[in-house]
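ugh ok so i messed up the first submission bc i forgot one of the chains. this is the corrected input, ALL of the components this time, i swear. 318 residues overall. if the numbers dont match what u have on ur side tell me asap before i send this to the collaborators (the ones from the other lab, u know who)
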Amino acid sequence: MLIICPHCKKQHNIDEKRIPPNVKMARCQGCNQQFPLEFPRPAPAPPPPAAPTPAPAAPKVAKTNDNVRRIGVSLSKGGVGKTTTSVNLAAGLAMAGFRVLLVDTDTQGQSAFMLGMKPKAGLTELVAEELTPAEAVIQARKNLWLLAGGKGLAGLKRIIDRKDFGGEQTLADALTPLEADYDYVVVDTSPGWDPLTVNVLFYVNELLVPVSLEIMSLQGFGEFLKSIAAIQKYRKGLALKYILPTLRDSRVKQGDDFLEQLKKLYGAAVCEPIRYNVRLSEAPAYGQTIYEFAPGSNGAQDYRELIRKITGNQNLFT
Ligand SMILES: Nc1ncnc2c1ncn2[C@@H]1O[C@H](COP(=O)(O)OP(=O)(O)OP(=O)(O)O)[C@@H](O)[C@H]1O
Ligand SMILES: [Mg+2]
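and heres the new structure output, hopefully the right one now
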């Protein structure tokens, strides 16, 4: 290539390939003056194609399920039919084709017993992250899964107690990531009032309160409502949706009076009562739901009616 010095016009024959790319000036060997090197330089070789960078890992955000219905079955008074209702509600919904997770938050662990199961682990191990959801949740029936309670829940209560803040969200944090798999989450609670009960009330949206139609249960119901109102100040999403009269004995006149009072006070939230039915108390001994043990019994009919009300589908089971 021929380059002419702009000062003395001397011609230089040079091999441009030997000029490093960063050299911008040349010195004329004739007049010893510098001048800019202007000639078309070969375009720098394109950088070698970068190794494909892996797509960034999707953030570990649990799939949320806005359609899941979370129903807590709760009343601080003991022996009013909470577990009988939770199990037969969950099993009936599963029979109707919904995918249901039954969560037992009672140290008595009776939900598993009623379903004839002896799980080795459950809710505590899930919250403590000792087991994955796939290990902690066990299938109890077609469409019905169980997160078992039992004595181990004492450990869960300790986990909640140890938290400096946010302890009331512990259950919600553990269950929300599982919800994508279910249409309903039904939570059975223990009698009394403890940090785990509060956790349930910070998780569920709908509260189903079984009330046996006798004075002590109704008195307990009044007290329970005060506690619920206190929680609702912080948990706007919690609604007292269903009041379920249980253990109804039509021979007891006082029970009818109580039922009328409940209907006057709570209107449509009051469900058709579950009648006293000895089959309901016998079924757990066989590890069977009422639909399996005595499908034609009053108990089975009453729980089917409850499921029709909750689903809003009057044609179910017809
Ligand atoms: N409608 C009913 N008719 C007859 N027996 C019933 C009925 N409902 C529940 N029972 C029986 O009453 C007892 C208490 O019921 P259940 O265990 O469901 O109550 P609970 O509220 O869960 O009790 P706890 O507060 O101790 O957890 C059980 O023996 C159960 O089989
Ligand atoms: Mg119970």
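quick check: The two ends are 97 Å apart (CA to CA). that seems consistent at least. The longest strand covers residues 239-246.
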